[in-house]
Amino acid sequence: MARHLRRWQGLRPATAAVTAAALGFAGVVLSASSAAAAPPIAQVPQVSLAYTDVRTPATSYPQPTGDLPLGSWLDGQGATHESRVYASFDLAGFAAKDTAKHVVTASFLFGESSAASYVQRSVEVWQTATPTAPVTWRRAPAEKQLLGTVVTTAAGPASYLHLDLTSAAAAAAASGRHTLSVELRLPDADEKNTALGRRLNPGMTLYASSNTPPGAPTELFSQAYACAAKAPYPYLPSLTPPLTAMLHDTDPGDQYLTGHYAVWPVEHPEQRTEFTQDSMLRDYGRSANVPTGLLADGGTYAWQVRGGDGTDLSAWSKPCTFHVDTTLPSAAPVVTSANYPVDRTTPGGVPGQFTLGANGVPDVAGYQFSWSQDFPVLGWSTDPNGVPQRTDPYTLPGFVRASRLGGPVKLTLTPPDQGPQTLYVRSLDRAFNPSPATSYRFFVPNTMPAVTGLPAAPRLGTPFTLHLAPNAGLPSVDSYTVQLNNDTPQTVTAAPDGTASVTLTLAYAGGNTITVRSHSPNGWTSSSNRLFAFVDTAPGVTSDIYPEDTGTTVNAGGVGVTGVFSFAPKVPNVVSYTYSFDFGNETTVAAGTDGTAQASWAPDASGQHTLSVYATDRDGKTYDTYYYSFDVN
């Protein structure tokens, strides 16, 4: 799970408070920008196109491919005709059943191919009833409303004429039939004037855009607390806390939305202030910090949010409420213990009984304690969808909740080790603001177990057995915890007399640490007995003529006198040794079945010489190099 840590703004000094009376922001909108683009424009499918002629009142001229006559015109024989044009468009794709999807814009485009005269001229566009039969002059659909008049003064064909039909298209899209039907005609005063007749291009087009409003926001969090619609409300340690929401939208193009937030004092809803957070990825949790100056220490506030896609807004979310507390507890807690008095040495062997008190601070909700001066920083993570994931700190080690505000708590703790020990404690209020820390110091005697059986020179991969016995100062021991280096500790059950044994195998060359602690039935954990075991993997080297110089010069042999150097393994499965004299060229010699080998060498000069050698096992792993110094006569 992809996760990231966010720090609580608590557990640090409070910032300056702002009084509610000084705000004066009732009804203010702090910003109103939008990160979303306009809805895409698409061509609306045309389902019919026809013109009519008064001279042939029962004839329909559907789907013409040539120019469309409009108004009065003369044919080749000089006969007068009068025509109107009808078109229908299907807006079903611009609205959806059971959703709020709706038309946002609609533009009707058409153009002239010719006109009888290029004077100022007009075309009326009417919305009609939806045709139920082929359109003729005699059976034309009824006119419902004049949608607009297009006027042109072009001294030639007006190839681009435009009329905004947004209102009519939106109403049609929302209707059950989704059809917008229009009629193009000349005004009554012009329709019978052949000097104002014209021809229209057959490419009449309706372009529209639609939008689905964002869905209601979900995953509401005040800082890292899930939305609290009723008491108890969380306490937040910040004057600018993050408010998280997940916004939703079903339109493919609306990937990023704007969060429109509102916050107000619970007792003064008229002081509602709105602010926005742009670029909120839909279906993903994103937070917006309350702007500076809106919250005051000690106040109780509600907030809600709605999503905006640049065209529409969702419904408001339910209100969420929180308290603000940026004031730290004024006094450090009091720590007392009957069996571990401050600055005293105790017998040990019994867990400590400690009482933590609020020292008169009334809103202390709990305490944090540690055997070191460093207290962990509280925070929260987010899941892969950006939703805050908060863990109640009082379920974590080192925290304890008070049974009532300002009340004490009792702790049973075992000191971590022997010698001087200090318990550090601080109190926490409901917002997890910390008090100053109290340090409680006392002394613990040595109670570590006795451990025997560690070889003086342990071998890599060779098991050995440790024998464990309880400290004489402990009344009883029921088990031991044994940890090798940083491996997972293992628990060993003790015999009735408190003794136990454990077999270990060292898997790492060099230094190894073995830590042993005993456990008593009363809950006591002893101080640690730490043993150091060094594993030497360099081979052993001996020589019949040239003994090793261990600090006292021993001249032996001589120039040209051959010596035999024997190699013995300290690790299992050795198959060869690689050596060199005086850091010259390396030579590899195979090991015998017992893992030993020999090399012969005659020095060419007197004085001190150095043999370096390392072993290789059957898996190809090499081990530490041994440097063998010797002196030659």
Describe the protein.
2% of the residues lie in helices and 44% in strands. The protein has 633 residues and is mainly beta. The protein folds into five domains: 6-35 and 214-324, Immunoglobulins (Immunoglobulin-like, Sandwich), CATH 2.60.40; 41-211, Jelly Rolls, CATH 2.60.120; 334-437, no CATH class; 450-535, Immunoglobulin-like; 540-632, Immunoglobulin-like. Strand 31 (419-429) and strand 32 form a beta hairpin. It starts with 5 loop residues before the first strand and ends with a strand. The model is unreliable at 1-35 (pLDDT under 50).
- Helix/strand class: mainly beta
| Mean pLDDT over all positions | 92
Beta-strand percent range:
35-45%
Instruction: Give me the Rg, rounded.
Output: 46 Å
Please estimate the helix content. Answer: under 10%
Low-confidence stretches: 1-35
Distance between the termini: 71 Å
In total, the number of strands is: 47
The top level CATH class name of the largest domain:
Mainly Beta
Q: How is the main sheet built?
A: 9 strands, antiparallel
Give the number of domains: 5
In CATH terms, what is the architecture of the largest domain?
Sandwich
What is the oligomer described by this structure?
Answer: single chain
CATH topology of the largest domain: Jelly Rolls
Count of discrete alpha- or pi-helical segments spanning 4 or more residues: 2
**3D shape:** elongated
